[in-house]
Amino acid sequence: MQRPFSIYCDWAFHDELGDLVELDEAMTMTALDTLAGWRARHGVGFDYYLLDAFWFDPGQPYTAFKRPHWPRGFAPALARIRELGMLPGLWFDLSGSHLQVAEWAPSYDPERRAHSLAYGPYGPSLEAGWRHALETWGVRLFKLDFANLSARPPGCGWATPEEAGQANGAALRSILSRLRAEYPDLVIIAYNGIERWPGYLSRPMGSPTHPGFDLSWLEVFDYVYSGDPRPSDLPRTDLRRSIDAFQDHQVWLLSRLGFPMERIDDHGCMVGGTNTSFYQGAHGFRRTYLAHLARGGRRDLYYGDPTLLADGDVAFMAAARRLYFDAFGRGLSTAWLGGEPGVAPWHGCLTGGAARGLLSLVNGPRTSQQIELALPGLARATALYADAGPDAAVQIAGEGALLVELAPEQMAVIGLGAYASADLALTPAADCPVPRRMRPLDIAFAPTGPGELTGVWRGAPPQTDEVVVFAQAHSATDASGVGGGGLPVRFGQETTREGQRPAEPASREQVHIELTVGGRPIAPLRILPDVPIWAGISWVGVFYAASALADGAELRVRQHGGAAGHTLRVRALAVER
Question: For an engineered disulfide with 195, which of 55, 200, 209, 265 has Cβ 3.0 to 4.6 Å away?
Answer without folding.
Answer: 200
